[in-house]
Design a protein that fits this description.
The chain is of the alpha+beta class. It has 20 helices and 24 strands.
């Protein structure tokens, strides 16, 4: 009997559908084509020699069931799990990108996207659903409880996935379960862990064990043959490296592992800027890339082949972690720059001590300040000159005042139109926010969150900044950075285009001074470049729906977060033109304004945009004093003097500031 016919007979026990059975048989043939028989053992070799593939399947499955458990925690089928999440998986209930869906009759459909029913359409729902993190959790629940219902559900879902999905002609298009990023993520985590957790279960048939390995191999070959780039290639290559390292019984594992290694080394070197920031300028994707590098290095250490990895790769990992520490907010999170959700800095430092050795700043973050030491610099503030992030902080305490000022390029992907944006923290509380851009859906809310309208920038004639380059820079950015015990200062100019028409009506220079340890000055100079008069509008975003005006200061406001801290904003513009103050919340027409559009940790909700607008002038300078204030404490006292000087009394200290010399 021919091999194909034997395989069809074997898989008939798990599917009576001829089309599906043929797909399973093809998977088995592909696997048996690359298995090195001698590594499986004599029983397998004899069965192959005797053309007895039923016995060969049994011997092969026995070998893989009895292999030692994976020693790498991230790839292990044992560990922490959520029973609630495992139960939902059994019952066909999924939550992806903050959207819940219960599949009819509990039967998962891996090519279904519920966002297409009522909108807004988010292609990420189907893609991310096919990352199968819920299988990893269910595998660990099975090992923790021994309940076979988890293995039974997994077996049915695995076979359904293999039968239902395949490599479409446009594998990276919407609706595909074979987008390369998902293949990489499955192979670097959820599938090896699920395999490791379920492979010994009696509820998983011998042929199912081998079909899972065959599918992983097919995904690995797909990634080797169709590499992409940027952070995707890091995930793809990490998946290939993980699978090829764990399944050395396959004849192409060694060459695929070498290909993956070369790609990982090249990509990390090409994607990390000299200051340690990832070139997409997003903490989310910086973590993705570091996580891939860490997984790669961790597995190499476990396999005893770390000497294959050059020291330059390890040093890039250190620089990346260091950049994340320097960017940390007082909440020990990352500021939300470009597309990102809330990333805890411990995500970067958590494995660093084990993989890279002790450093006091790693321990400082990992212990939540209880041990170790913060980075030792001239001050607690820092400037990343290639990313273009000026971080101003009073100290490294949990109650520090903090501002992140973006003077950099767009970033190579996931970018926002937000040069000169700021966000401000006092302690763990974000007082002036950047929301991170929202979900990856097709909606007006997403467009708003990417635009200058949704950032703390300036509009010219109602138009937000809009540029297409530069994506990144090979040269350090000069922001006039000053840091000392008295103040921090940085400045930059946006001299590119505004609006999708890409016109250049004016330039915008922003100067930021941090008067340590208590408050910030933001000075925005708008200069006409076409000789015409313009309307200029400065925007600041607060995640509350309550503010009140301060009657003692013209256009002054104070927030009402109802939390530990409030923010006071006092304008001291030097010009004589009338300025209109507006606080806008939940507006949709003609332009969305006053919305917080978070990703993962929170959904779209009402917020407030504080707007100060001057009309019909050629040039204008907005000066804004920004004070984080402890709720209930005395407000600052501000007195204007001659020649641009201001006297400020706040929290028991007196300051004199010259708006004409903010960098001195």
């Amino acid at each position: 009997m021919e091999r194909r016919e034997q395989f069809l007979n074997i898989v008939s026990g798990i599917s009576a559908n001829n089309e599906i059975a043929l797909k399973y048989a093809e998977h088995l043939e592909e696997l048996f084509d690359v298995i090195i028989p001698e590594k499986i053992g004599n029983e397998f070799c004899n069965a192959i020699e005797n053309n007895d593939y039923a016995s060969a399947v049994k011997a092969c499955a026995k070998y893989f069931r009895e292999k030692p458990d994976f020693s790498v925690p991230e790839l292990s089928g044992k560990g922490w799990y959520s029973v609630d999440a495992a139960e939902k998986c059994v019952n066909g209930v999924a939550r992806v990108v903050n959207i819940d869906w219960a599949f009819p009759n509990g039967e998962m459909d891996f090519l279904f996207n519920p966002t297409e029913l009522e909108g807004p359409i988010n292609h990420e729902w189907l893609w991310q659903f096919n990352r199968h993190d819920y299988w990893c959790n269910m595998a660990r629940a099975y090992n923790g409880t021994g309940d076979e219902k988890y293995a039974e559900a997994f077996s049915a879902q695995l076979l359904k996935w293999i039968a239902q999905t395949g490599i479409p002609e446009k594998w990276n298009a919407p609706g595909s379960a074979w987008r390369t990023i998902e293949c990489g993520l499955r192979l670097l985590g959820s599938w090896p862990a699920s395999y490791d957790g379920f492979r010994k279960s009696p509820s998983l048939a011998d042929v199912s064990v081998l079909l899972m390995i065959a599918s992983m191999h097919r995904q690995s070959v797909h990634l080797v043959e169709h590499p992409t780039g940027k952070n995707w290639l890091m995930m793809e290559s990490n998946g290939v490296y993980s699978f090829s390292s764990l399944f050395t019984e396959l004849s192409d594992s060694e060459i695929n592992r070498k290909i993956a290694t070369e790609r990982l080394l090249n990509e990390l070197e090409g994607q990390i800027l000299p200051d340690g920031m990832h070139n997409e300028l997003s903490p989310d994707y910086q973590f993705v890339v570091l996580n891939c590098a860490s997984n790669f290095y961790n597995l190499a250490l476990s396999l005893g082949v770390a000497d294959e990895i050059p020291s330059s790769f390890v040093e890039l990992m250190r620089k990346t972690i260091n950049a994340a520490i320097l960017l940390s907010t007082p909440a020990l999170t990352q500021p939300k720059t470009n597309d990102t959700h809330i990333i805890n800095t411990v995500a970067y430092t958590g494995r660093a001590e084990r993989l890279l050795g002790y450093k006091p700043e790693y321990r400082f973050v990992n212990s939540k300040r209880a041990e170790g030491e913060p980075p030792q610099g001239e001050t607690a503030s820092a400037y990343l000159p290639y990313a273009g992030f000026a971080v101003m902080r009073s100290d490294w305490s949990e109650n520090a005042a903090y501002l992140c000022f973006d003077v950099g390029t767009l970033g190579t992907a996931h970018f926002h139109q937000d040069k000169l944006n700021i966000n401000i923290f006092k302690g763990s509380q974000e007082l002036i926010y950047d929301d991170g851009g929202g979900q990856y859906e097709i909606s007006r809310a997403r467009e708003y969150a990417l635009s200058g309208h949704g950032h703390n920038t300036v509009l010219v004639d109602g138009l937000p900044q809009y540029r297409k380059v530069p994506l990144c820079t090979d040269e350090p950015i000069d922001a006039g950075w000053v840091t000392n015990d008295v103040f921090d200062y940085a400045a930059a100019t946006y001299d590119d285009t505004f609006g999708k028409e890409m016109i250049k009506p004016a330039t915008h220079k922003r100067e930021v001074r941090f008067c340590k340890p208590n408050f910030f000055i933001v000075s925005d100079t708008l200069t006409s470049v076409d000789g015409n008069t313009h309307d200029y509008e400065a925007l600041f975003h607060l995640d509350t729906t309550k503010v009140r005006e301060l009657t003692e200061y013209k256009n002054g406001i104070i927030s009402d977060f109802g939390k530990a801290y409030e923010v006071v904003m006092i304008p001291l513009d030097e010009n004589t033109a009338p300025v209109e103050l507006k606080t806008v919340s939940a507006v949709t027409e003609p332009q969305m304004q006053g919305w917080y559009n978070g990703r993962n940790e929170t959904n779209l909700h009402e917020a407030i945009t504080v707007s100060r607008k001057v009309s019909g002038v050629k040039d204008y300078r907005f000066n804004t004093l920004i004070f984080p204030v402890k709720a209930g404490d005395a407000l600052p006292k501000v007195t204007e003097c001659a020649n641009g000087q201001v006297n400020i009394c706040f929290e028991g200290k007196k300051y004199t500031v010259d708006f004409h010399s903010l960098n001195k």
